[in-house]
Amino acid sequence: MTERERALGRPMSRRELLRTAGRGSMYLGAMAFLAACGVQAERRPRQRLEELPPESGELNMANWPLYIDKSGGRSPTLISFREETGIDISYKTVINDNEEFFGTIREPLSQGEPTGWDIIVVTDWLVAKMIDLGYAERLHHDRLPTATENLADKFRDPWYDPGNAHSFPWAAGITGIGYDISATGREITSVQDLLDPEFEGRVGMFSEMRDTFGLVLLSLGVEPQDATVEDVEKAQQLLIDNRGNFRDFYGNEYTDQLGAGNLALSMAWSGDIFALSLDNPDLRFVIPEEGGMAWTDNMVIPAGAENPTDAHAFIDYVYQPRIATNITEWVWYESPVDGVQELVQEDIAGGGPRYLRELAESELVFPTEDTLAQLHPYKRLDLEEEEVWNDLFQEVVQG
Question: Which secondary structure element, helix H or strand E, spans residue 212, and what is its range?
């Protein structure tokens, strides 16, 4: 049992949890993606309840696996929220891929029907898409005083949701490269390493189109947010030309393959590798010299949510610095809440587990200006552009 397992009082390591959570997500994501493509997008009027109803005492939330604090198999944050508010929250880890999950809610949203969820946590580009389609409720900021006060400046007024009108961030991370140095035999520094014949058949790529095209575009000297269709066609051809180098295109299950030694290196999300490296110090994460992709996952209330007032209560609750710190100390992604790094340092001084020191000093969890300068946002695609990009990407994945 690792130090972190003992500290958090749970029998299963984060690596095992990551592996379990990842299994099957690529297949499911592909099926849901194809299903979603068959649903005609229908814009609906921008949503905003003029007055929030009374709290119902119920809340249904969808999130990604391993994205909230746990102790003994339960989340202290969810327990304390129930106790302090009296709201019975049903929290489900049903999101393994943005397209996969969107495929499950797109049809009811297009029909103006409830999705069954009051809060969903999705990545910035999907937030923008939902806003454009009229699928996201406008928030009542007067019901979010804690969140409004404690939201870090860098997360205010984001490109995908001006004024944070429809969303508040849950966490932020980086797409780069994870690798096992005992398998590569050398440090990995570049996107070109993913294409190196030395690692033929031992390279993992992402099934998330924006991440994969993003890194390849950067390797071609193209800023992803400025990319044209012609640029993406060049990126597609580079991927096709090197298809034999890739073991497969993965969702969350890339961690399973990397941990099992089937991959020497893979596209990776920063927090995953940081967590896995505590069990296997040979695993490392790098922002490629060409740059990495920066993303933010956000809490959104889907249009027509049945418990919107309770949803506001939860969003405001997790923006308490102490609550946000508890979550960050477990998930190892950047928190959007001011003061979290200082509270982690206080926990270290108070005798907290040793891994917290590495967390507090991590430039991936608490990015410096130099780190941020290496990162690039996704391009905001309109529906027509997205269809073109997706078609090009599916030719690569299915090839």
Answer: helix 209-219
